[in-house]
Specification:
two-stranded antiparallel sheet; alpha/beta
Length: about 190
């Protein structure tokens, strides 16, 4: 009994950002591109509006299909719509004042401009995009200053976050109490950076 109580105390409730970034990582696994990206839009009250992944147009070939590959133009895959674009489309809204956009990858300049139009106030990401030029990065920083937008890289290691969520779900009453007796660390030993 004491051991169970101690375990419950050790595993804190995940934060909004931890859960949301975990969700978009799951969504990114649906991607049809060589670079798997997931994104989500949340209202200011942190209620989810839409999640999406990057992918080809319906019925069109996927980048990952044998012999197809990405349609690269200036370093950007044009075969796929970006995850942020798809999330905005699925949301079906013109504005999300004070809302959040979280993405596995830093938004490109075009997606970022769309987020500004939505009146998003927070844009978080896990991985640097790498294709934004220095001029585009400066433009994005300038827009952030002018519009009061926070653009930042998520500071936690996502695998550590996912392990925390799994461990919490293994507690009494959790969804994985019966199905996963081990956490990610125990199943896949490695350096977890803790």
């Amino acid at each position: 009994m004491k051991k169970e109580r101690k375990m419950e105390q050790e595993i804190s409730r995940p934060s909004f950002l931890e859960v949301a970034f975990s969700q978009i990582c799951e969504e990114s696994s649906r991607s049809t591109c060589r670079i798997q990206v997931g994104a989500g839009l949340w209202r200011a009250d942190k209620s989810l509006i839409a999640m999406a992944h990057n992918g080809s147009l319906p019925g069109e070939p996927h980048c990952e299909d044998t012999g197809v590959g990405c349609l690269l133009i200036n370093g950007h895959c044009k075969r796929c719509d970006h995850a942020e674009h798809n999330a905005k489309h699925y949301a079906g809204v013109r504005e999300i004042p004070g809302g959040h956009c979280l993405s596995t990858h830093e938004p490109c300049i075009d997606c970022f401009r769309d987020l500004v139009r939505l009146k998003i106030s927070y844009v978080g990401y896990l991985v640097e995009y790498g294709n934004n030029t220095e001029q585009e990065k400066e433009f994005m920083k300038d827009l952030c200053r002018k519009k009061g937008i926070t653009l930042e890289k998520f500071s936690s290691e996502i695998l550590v976050v996912k392990n925390k969520i799994l461990k919490r779900q293994q507690k009494p009453g959790g969804v994985f109490t019966r199905y996963c007796p081990l956490g990610i660390k125990e199943q896949f030993p490695t350096d977890w950076g803790e």
